[in-house]
Design goal:
Strand content: 15-25%
Helix content: 25-40%
Bound molecules: beta-D-galactofuranose, zinc ion
Order of helices and strands: EHEHEHEEHEHEHEHEHEHEEH
GO molecular function: carbohydrate binding
Shape: elongated
Number of helices: 10
Family: Belongs to the bacterial solute-binding protein 2 family.
Pfam family, one: Peripla_BP_4
Largest sheet: 6 strands, parallel
Subcellular location: Cell envelope
Structural class: alpha/beta
Strand order of the largest sheet: 2-1-3-4-5-11
Keywords: Signal, Sugar transport, Transport
Length: about 300
């Protein structure tokens, strides 16, 4: 078990709080670890969890949340696959008197009455850390540094914000230029396909910024298939810090991995306990996370939880 057993929240019903959770899908190692963390923490906290997987489709998330509303659960939580298109659905939950907690990815709404709190990473900071590493790495090199960007799922908060944070950071050195970008949908297969396209279209790519490890590991395969050395001929920066990502970093096939912590489960159950016992919660709870270079990856790899 992780950090000890979580306090069982009070709240409605003698046999534990009923939480309906709508999860994005099973697209990446990060996502699988996130789901496990929520399930594990619910068990520890005595929360009755109904978790539904949406296979990356917003309409599946809406259907699941409507089922939670008609089942009159005590609280709803979800990771919105994309930022927009949630207002009507969240108004239905509010009108039914069911509090909503947004986790991981953010919704783009101005109506703050539609959810009580947002628990998740600062994706802009993650993108900025990736860009800052490249600025530092190429500080003494003059001449163009040609970068390609494999973006996360189009319309998702992590894709939008990692792109923005990265672009902001590389402004510090005009030699750093993004010469191509494509949607890798946070998967290894799509990442490989997008990278193969970049390699066919551009000679002399210097670096890749992949919005998650799975896409970056797909890019590694495409780069090797093109007869080049990932991590040496072409530098690769990714986000998540999953075990596979850190293993590739330790072996020098990736160069820098920014952490995006999926283990939100126990913080979520604490918020569920507070929300269902009328306690106030902060509007925003940011998850702690760091970044890894090769040495740091070697140091943590042996006991990485996911
Ligand atoms: C980030 C999360 C992203 C991960 C991807 O919090 O939404 O979605 O970076 C996952 O691995 O698919
Ligand atoms: Zn535990």
């Amino acid at each position: 078990c992780g950090g000890g057993e979580d306090a069982a929240p009070g709240g409605a019903g003698q046999d534990g709080v009923r939480l309906g959770f709508s999860q994005v899908g099973t697209e990446s190692a990060w996502r699988l670890a996130n789901t496990r963390s929520i399930e594990h923490a619910a068990t520890n906290a005595g929360v009755r969890l109904d978790l539904r997987i949406a296979d990356g489709k917003q309409e599946n998330q809406a259907a699941a949340i409507r089922e939670f509303i008609s089942a009159d659960v005590d609280v709803i939580a979800f990771s919105p696959v994309v930022e927009t298109g949630w207002d009507t659905l969240l108004q239905e939950a509010r009108d039914a008197g069911i509090p909503v907690i947004v986790t991981d990815r953010m919704v783009d709404t101005t109506d703050t009455s539609l959810f009580v709190t947002m628990l998740g990473s600062d994706f802009t900071a993650e993108g900025r850390k990736a860009g800052e590493w490249l600025v530092e790495h190429y500080r003494d090199r003059h001449g163009r540094v040609r970068i390609v960007e494999i973006e996360g799922t189009a319309g998702s908060a992590p894709a939008n914000q990692r792109r923005a944070g990265f672009a902001e950071a590389i402004k510090a050195d005009r030699d750093l230029q993004v010469i191509g970008s494509g949607d890798g949908d946070f998967t290894r297969a799509q990442g490989e396909q997008v990278m193969a396209g970049f390699l066919a279209a551009h000679t002399g790519i210097d670096a890749v910024f992949a919005h998650n490890d799975d896409e970056g590991l797909g890019a590694v395969e495409a780069i090797e298939a093109a007869g080049k050395r990932p991590g040496t001929d072409i530098k690769i920066i990714t986000v998540d810090a999953s075990r596979d990502g850190l293993a590739a970093l330790a072996e020098g096939r990736l160069n820098y991995v920014v952490e995006c912590n999926p283990l939100l489960g126990s913080q979520l159950m604490e918020l569920v306990g507070k929300v269902t016992t009328g306690q106030t919660v902060p509007r925003r709870v940011v998850v702690d996370e760091t970044a890894f270079d090769r040495e740091a990856a070697k140091a943590v790899l042996h006991n990485r939880q996911y």
